[in-house]
Structure prediction request, 232 residues.
Amino acid sequence: MSTDGSREALNVIATTRSIRRYADEQIPVTDLNEIIWHATRAPSGSNRQPFRFLVLRDGPMAMQAKKLLGDSFRQGWASKSETDGYRSEVEKKSDSPKARQAATMQHYVDNIEIVPVVVLACLVRYREPSPYEGASIYPACQNLLLAARALGYGGALTMWHQSADAELRLLLSIPEEVALSACITLGRPLGSHGAVRRRPLAELVFEDSWGSAPQWASDPEGTSYTSAGPKK
Prediction:
């Protein structure tokens, strides 16, 4: 039986968007502490808690790191914009959802240096790199984003730090055995959170065998859908 509290928790999950436009205001350290604390409540293999969060705000090292990240993000977006057709939508001066998304992304990468908080989500490896090691850090990343949402902030998880990996390690003294698993930007949203668009549930869940959608798989009334994904 659901309660008002459980319904509110579910609403937070269903309405946590990736936020890429931020107000020009800092996140108070009390709120930042609460966000990171909730991130660390996430499960991990054998409860080893191998996740570490390197927080970049406005210190001298942080500003240098943000400059490296800005260059890396703009490089990543330039490549994606070209290969995924965003650039052509912009050049057509289209008002399509893809063109609007491109404008948001361009604003995002052009302003990385002034994002209030950047969090490097790091994994302290205790064995050889494995394709499964993300299971011990990405739940913590999602906790972080949900906690930020609950406190009125927003964030986006990216991997566009990767081309600056070596430079970030050198600048921030990150040990070799530590993986930079994600880069999360945080701030007060200029826009708002709200219902996200995803594929219909019946396309995403199977029962008994691959491709067999269960009869009970249905979306709540009013659910909006995305057109993202491979063409059928």
